[in-house]
Amino acid sequence: MQARKDAGVTQVELGKRLGQRQTFISKIELGERRLDAAEFIEACRAIPVDPYALMQKAEGAD
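That's the HTH cro/C1-type domain-containing protein sequence above. Prediction below.
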């Protein structure tokens, strides 16, 4: 969620970029739905953010 916000992308806009509804993005951000690896990479490219850098940042947040 933070990467999306940092990029200035709304849930609606990201959903459109992915061919999904805003509720799809909301469920992911609320932890109600998980992304598989391919979806994660596609979402990162749509923001755009480097998937590897985002994973490294997440690992450092622990």
